[in-house]
Amino acid sequence: MERHLKGTGISQKSVSGEVFVFSHYHRNGSISRYSISDVENELRRLNEAIEATRKDLTSIYNQMHVDGYKAHADIVRTHLMILDDESFYNEVVISLEQKRYNIEHVLDIRAKQYIQMLEPIDDPRFRERTEDLLIVIDHILRHLKPASGDVTPAASAKIIVARNLSPSDLAFPALENAAGLITEAGGMACCPSVMAHALEIPAVIDVADIVEQVTDGANAVLDCVKGLVILDPEPQTILRCHEEARDEVEIKDPLGLHVRPSSQLAECASKFKCEISINNNGHQVNGKSLLGILSLNAPFESRLEVICKGSDASAALKAIKEVPL
After folding, report:
1. Which of 26, 65, 72, 258 is an active site residue?
2. CA–CA separation, 76 and 51 (whole Å)
3. Residues of the domain holding 252
């Protein structure tokens, strides 16, 4: 039976698919342990993982600056500073030399120690810094895990479910290939919201206790227009999801939506079987009609809602968004 959970929709899109519950390595108890004799080899693996993590985070930091997400870029910058912190590195090396276990397990021990320190402390700033440290450990582990074979990230596009996300999580393959996002965290300025915009994927945020209500591989529908997450959807619900697609397009021509872009828009829309409507502040017209589009009288920097309904709705919306307006 379908279950409907209410949240806040990001974008005007809908999507259906399998769920992948995103969790960090140090929280899911999946780190194996084995004794090692070659400490130098483990140090080499650690240094290579740190360098790969630095490359990932630097790329995300630079892209966030380009896209104008300075506050979120600063979070990634904090993670880079932790990665370069000598005291953190030295603590890990000393622990490795003393315990002589594989480096994944050593990092896992450090992470769990930080979690124990975190639990009794109410200071939100201290908790944020500890969370940042745990995220950095996760990224190092991500580059070490293939050697131990403990975790296989989701490679195909799935709907990601998480309590919250950090901008640095964009480096995880599961996030790079995400078809949609569902998170317990909310707020239009929260990281999941920004990530949904950056990845140009639909998302429903502020969904209470979603992590406890789903399992990997379960089916879900995200109705971002209504801010709904539909778990275990009926076949007809999935069909309706694929038959409708909507999003906004911005008029970037200084002259507004004049004859040339209007004719290109109508020509593009006419190639598809689905019904296409374009809405400008309540004035809705047939997207395949040149005269109708011109009647929108859309000026420079205005935003129009495009609504496609039919079997090829998603393809139509994608094509329309590529029309230079």
Report:
1. 258
2. 15
3. 245-321
Please say if 258 is a catalytic residue: yes
Instruction: Give the Cα separation of 93 and 39 in Å (integer).
Output: 9
Answer yes or no: do 44 and 90 share one domain. Answer: yes
Give the CATH number for residue 171: 3.50.30.10
Identify the residue with better confidence: 148 or 298. Answer: 298
- Model confidence over 290-324: pLDDT tens digits? 999 999 999 999 999 999 988 788 889 999 999 99
Asked if pLDDT for residue 151 goes beyond 50, the answer is no
Asked if the model's pLDDT at residue 153 lies above 70, the reply is no
Q: Could you tell me which residues are beta bridge partners of residue 221?
A: 16, 230
- In this structure, the number of other CB atoms found within 10 A of the CB of residue 133 comes to 20
CA dihedral 6, 10, 16, 21 (to 10 degrees): -80
Tell me the C-alpha to C-alpha distance, in Å, between residue 191 and each of 172, 187, 200, 207.
15, 9, 14, 15
Which letter does DSSP use for residue 295 in this model? T
Determine the pLDDT at residue 205: 93
